């Protein structure tokens, strides 16, 4: 995906008109999505319902240079108005707290607008199933921003598993550790902590929905395995907190492989320690998000081999996600941008009534449903005394 400056939109095609729901002043993830959308010059932000507070929404729109009549007070108003314009948005990015994902996505799908939604997909399996059915009925593109699947070395790992270089997969180890909720940040004015620890806005899962789904999605994406059942223990270590802040899950995959997932937001000393290990009958892979440009590969009976982003031995799946030569770090923002560029390729193909190149890959609404099934099964397992529970 090495793209010449100013030539990101394929063949001189006009940029994709993008709207945004949420992500107004002071919102971290909204800014990340806007950077990612613009990095490869594929999108242009033209409309937004940037806050549930109308005044804040208008002020946020003005700060981002939106035309006053396209800084909307609600997503419902925005979907209706933009669908009626000849120059209306083609896609919308939904970057709200979890409980607003499904209502907003539904409104824009029904308006004929492509959807790029933050994870998790919804707050329930029932909502997720409704979105899957609606996407099929409308034929619109629906992408979920599990951004870590956009990292070049994760694409390399997935390609190696698909090529059989690890043999039959036996073990998948997933970890995602942070420490930012070690104390009750939700009572100190942190808006990020407030909604993530509120069941009304986050859903039934806290840590498991916020970061556990990232680790789970990554393990599924690389291994290609489907989960049969799980056994989970969801813990709340911080007194007074309404949702889990530490998660431990055992997984049984179809075909006999086993998995283990640990996610925590109270693991002191961890910043954003997302790690993945996959082991098969012939070899193993190890990757860490905090060193994202490296992938350790072990062949049975041979010394470990260090593979690098766009370096020697890079597979096409790795190289097409890389923008700069090896040794120049790429990371979080570029991984996010890769998801946006993959979706852009699909949208540009859809403009012409076609399909994108077969290499184009992004997390879908079906992946979102899979994530919701994982959350609900884990919550049910834990509440039932940590018993084996079917997934889906």
- Largest beta sheet: strand ordering: 13-12-11-10-6-9-8-7-14
What order do the helices and strands follow? EHEHHEHEHEHEHHHEEEEEEEHHHE
Overall mean pLDDT: 95
Strand portion: 15-25%
Envelope shape:
globular
Helix content: 25-40%
**How large is the radius of gyration?**
21 Å
The major sheet is characterized as: 9 strands, mixed
Distance between the termini: 35 Å
The parts where pLDDT drops under 50 for at least 5 residues are 2-10
β-strand number: 14
Structural class call reads alpha/beta
Count of runs of 4 or more consecutive helical residues: 12
Walk me through the structure.
The chain has 392 residues and is α/β, with parallel strands linked by helices. It is built from 12 helices and 14 strands. Strands 13-12-11-10-6-9-8-7-14 form a 9-stranded mixed sheet. The protein has a 5-stranded parallel sheet with strand order 2-1-3-4-5, with helices on both faces. The chain is globular. The protein starts with 15 loop residues before the first strand and ends with a strand.
